[in-house]
Amino acid sequence: MKIFTANQIYKADKFTIEKQQIPSDALMERAATQLFEWIHSRLQGAEVTIQLFCGIGNNGGDGIALARHLKEADYNIQVHVVNYSEKRSKDFLLNLERLKDRKIWPEFLNDDCVMPEISPNDIIVDAIFGIGLNRAPSEWVGKLIEHINASQAFVLSVDIPSGLPSDRMPWNTDHVIRASYVLSFQVPKLVFFLPETGVYQNQWELLDIGLDAEFLVKEEVDYEFMTQFDVQPIYRPRLKFSHKGTYGHAVIVGGGYGKIGAVQMAANACLSIGAGLATTFVPECGYHSLQTALPEAMVLTDAEDDYISEIKIPFKPNAIGIGMGMGTKEETVQAFGKFLKEVDLPLVIDADGLNILSQNPKLLNEIPKLSILTPHPKELERLIGEWKNDFDKLDKAKTFATKHDIVLVIKGAHTITFYGGKGYVNSTGNPGMATAGSGDVLTGMITGLVAMGYDSLPATVLGVYLHGLAGDIGASLVSYDALKATGIIENIGKAYLELFKRPEPQEGKGA
Ligand SMILES: NC(=O)C1=CN([C@@H]2O[C@H](COP(=O)(O)OP(=O)(O)OC[C@H]3O[C@@H](n4cnc5c(N)ncnc54)[C@H](OP(=O)(O)O)[C@@H]3O)[C@@H](O)[C@H]2O)[C@H](O)CC1
Ligand SMILES: [K+]
Predict the structure, then answer these.
(1) What mean pLDDT is reported for the chain?
(2) What is the Å distance from ligand 1's center to 57 Cα?
(3) Residue having the nearest C-alpha atom to atom 19 of ligand 1
(4) DSSP string, 363-385
(5) Binding residues for AMP, per the UniProt record (predicted)?
């Protein structure tokens, strides 16, 4: 599912209005009808007070049109116009007239207004600013937003929480609506997915306002939200007349004294996702535990007992995952550097593999093209340097991935995979997956998919999605808190089944 910028949404509006030959207020009417149906199907005429706070642009127009629908269904409404500018939009004014025709007179709030009383039992509709916000709200509007946030009422935001710009950080973090729920039109907004801006909404859902399908298909975007619908076509079914060789031989290189478990989990995940064969390469000390804990895998050992000193793989694997639990001892750094120079297939590099790269930036030039790097936030910072905010982080990550021709995975609540100047935002996963070994499992899964013949980008996008989905299934069985990395592995099979079962998710959780 494409993520459009505000400009692209305006373009889509224009295209739709011209192609469908509809007046511009028809889109606002569709938006208001969708909003009304969503609310009405849940409230069923309940006697709750609905307070609508409407700006003077088209976001406000949506709110005003919604007020008319609510009134017609006999809801108890109070309409406030947040009068922050004289430049009212045409469709706002049209809908204001329609409201007045029905004898509803909104209260106009200006910079000297008394804050309206809000009971915690009221429902607030937030239609102050939409994607047209382009500068800091003035002080009194900011205070009104703070007042709404302090009310403890349920806040339903129209399109985007007011005060949150769609493509940059807010000017003042207190002057952004904290939405209980956002009903967003047609396409998700990038800010829903970033740690610093995703906290302004608890949950979001899309409403289809019939923007033109041709435009939606053709328009090129910088970011895509990878739903079940987007990920399904990546999957390649196993063939009837196939054998284990068809699904590749993966090698997992890593481990050190006390850190063999990381390799074991990665190799287990690699086999669980469907690799034909898996071999681990570990220091000698890992031999017995690996052979016992994971009988399906083969084990190669380093000459050293408790660290890696030379990586020797006596066959040509289809994929190599490297770095987990490996440490950054000088001999290991040398071995890793030598290996990078020798190897001629893309690698999946994680954990200490990434740390070695950050400590020895010259090695960055030795990374085989199309390798996949899977840093968590700290590892990412060591690789690409500090960032000012989430948008700066995305820019730096994109530049880094393009410069080195690699797939870069930014792990987080919504993991984002960068390749070829584009970002793929994952839709699965949960806070229970912030647990020891979760990253080793992801590395193993992606390595397995590469071994099976998936190219680097599809392997990563599918691996990240299935990893999150397996985590969601695991958490649904044991709670977020009790989920362990091995619980993710155990549910990879169910994630595959779910990939073809669940309806496409159209909602997401924020904070
Ligand atoms: N395709 C769709 O998704 C549709 C969405 N709709 C809704 O329309 C809004 C966007 O409406 P728009 O009128 O473009 O913008 P806003 O309502 O967000 O803002 C109105 C104007 O306010 C000015 N502005 C911006 N920032 C500030 C500020 N800090 N203080 C005061 N004024 C501000 C700005 O105008 P300027 O000329 O003064 O810069 C804005 O234009 C979208 O979010 C949806 O809710 C349509 O209803 C249907 C199609
Ligand atoms: K809004």
Answers:
(1) 96
(2) 5
(3) 132
(4) GGGGSPTT-EE---HHHHHHHH-
(5) 411-415, 439
Sequence spans of domains, the chain = 2-216, 231-502
Strands 249-253 and 76-82: unpaired
Say how many Å lie between the CA of residue 104 and the centre of ligand 2: 21
Ligand that comes closest to the CA of residue 145: 2
Q: How many residues does the chain have?
A: 511
CA separation for the pair 460, 57 (Å, rounded): 41
Q: Does ipTM surpass 0.85 in this model? A: yes
- How far is 350 from 348, CA to CA, in rounded Å? 7
Amino acid at 245: G
The CA distance from 362 to 255, in Å, is 24
Contact 75, 42 (CB under 8 A): no
Instruction: Please state which architecture CATH assigns to domain 231-502.
Output: 3-Layer(aba) Sandwich (3.40)
Q: Which helix (H) or strand (E) holds 402?
A: helix 390-404
Distance 158 CA to ligand 2 centre (A): 4
Q: What angle do CA 121, 124, 125 make, to 5 degrees?
A: 155
Minimal-distance CA residue to ligand 1 atom 15:
132
Cα 431 to middle of ligand 2, angstroms: 27
State CA 278 to chain mean position distance: 30
Residue 176 to residue 198: CA distance in whole angstroms: 12
Using an 8 Å Cβ cutoff, are 109 and 84 in contact?
no
User: What is the rounded CA–CA span in Å between residue 510 and residue 261?
Assistant: 32
**Position 502 pLDDT exceeds 80:** no
Condensed to tens digits (0 to 9), the pLDDT of residues 191-207 reads 999 999 999 999 999 99
5-21 pLDDT, tens digit each: 999 999 999 999 999 99
28 in ligand 1 pocket by Cβ < 6 Å?
Answer: yes
Q: Mind giving me the DSSP string for 197-241?
A: TGGGBSEEEEE-----HHHHHH---SEEEE-HHHHGGG--PPPTT
321-352: string of b/e by CB count within 10 Å (b at 16+)?
bbbbbbbbbeebbebbbebbeebeebbbbbbb
d(CA 189, CA 391): 13
Nearest CA to ligand 1 atom 33: 133
Cα separation, 120 vs 404, whole angstroms: 53
Cβ–ligand 1 contact at 176 (below 6 Å): no
Half-sphere exposure of 269 (CA within 13 A, CB side): 33
Q: How confident is the model at residue 242 (pLDDT cuts 50, 70, 90)?
A: confident
**Residue 171 and residue 228: Cα distance in Å, rounded?**
35
Residue-wise pLDDT tens digits, 367-418: 999 999 999 999 999 999 999 999 999 999 999 999 999 999 999 999 999 9
